[in-house]
Amino acid sequence: MPTALAEVLRKAPLTPEKVAFAWRTAVGPAMAKATTVDLRNGVLRVRARDTTWLREVERSAPLIRSRLSTVLGNVVGSIETNQG
């Protein structure tokens, strides 16, 4: 993502739509389609469609947090996963 666009997005209000956009940008279309996310009090709750996607999110969590910070800033303190 271009730096200028990331800066503009970071300054925008934190909304569910912004979190969903940041998630899709961070993880790509396949994982985004297989998961849903909700950010509350610094905890990003990720619900995965099945155990395969759940494990992939858990395995990739450090990289995902790094990518999310590009768009959201440092608002994601942790990532919690569950299957649903």
Provide an overview of this structure:
This protein is an alpha+beta fold. It has one domain (3-83): 2-Layer Sandwich (GMP Synthetase, Chain A, domain 3), CATH 3.30.300. It contains 4 helices and 3 strands. The protein has helices spanning 3-11, 16-27, 29-33, 51-72, and strands spanning 35-40, 43-48, 78-83. It has a 3-stranded mixed beta sheet with strand order 1-2-3. Strand 1 and strand 2 (43-48) form a beta hairpin. It starts with a helix and ends with a strand. The model has no long low-confidence stretch (mean pLDDT 92).
Tell me the name of the CATH class. Answer: Alpha Beta
Biggest sheet strand line-up: 1-2-3
Q: Overall 3D geometry?
A: globular
Order of helices and strands: HHHEEHE
Key traits:
84 residues; alpha+beta; GMP Synthetase, Chain A, domain 3; 3-stranded mixed sheet; 3 strands; 57% helix; globular
